[in-house]
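Appendix B. Chain record.
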Amino acid sequence: MCMTTTLPAPTASAVQDPDVATGERLRRAAEAPADRRRELQNDVVSDYIPMAGRLARRYRGRGIADDDLDQVARLGLVKAIRRFDPERRSFAAYAVPTVLGELRRHFRDRGWTIRPVRSLQELQMSVTAARDELRSTGTHEPSAEDVAERLGIGVAEVREADAAHDAFAPRSLDVPSPADGTFAHERIGALDPGHEAVERLQTAMPALRSLDEQDRRLLHMRFVEDRTQRDIGVELGVSQMQVSRRLTAVLQRVRERIGPLDG
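Structure tokens predicted for this chain:
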């Protein structure tokens, strides 16, 4: 009679957690000679590159090239491997925040096309980190209210940080709108009416400099200090009619130098 023996399934404790195994490899690396240490650490880098890539993908589409994000994430991974204390046991629990921190620092230092104030940069990074954490633990896209509650700040601050996101990669004024095909610069640009006033002032300056001190003082009181002709007459000791005639004469000389002010 042939009898078969069924071996018991391995218990959970008999199967080593890959994360625990990584910690053990790094413990051995810390005690190994330099060449062997580099070999063990390189093995861990190879094992965790996919994780670094997943973390880098969270930051795509924000104005920094995908290849650069991958390189920064891998740099964070290498730093995590070199700094890891095997007594912590879980390498992933240490590596993930280390890689994310490296990515956020890169954005803070290199990612801004238009650099806002430092406080707004840091707020934007905190909002992004909080939103990522809420996505990983929740079942819906976090709202501004969810992020504000998580950080203990106002909803208006969250929205301000979200608006600063466009400073990473501002939208081009030359990209047509998908709605009507118009360009952004056609919708938001306008002629500044002050340009003509500046040009007129520059044209008038030589004529004004040609006036004597008393005439320049008269124009200053009337058009800069915005005083009435009666008030000017009291200060100069003349009648309002005399002030009016003198202003007319002075302005006529200026017009002769620069041409009619109305075009």
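Further analysis of this model is presented in Appendix C.
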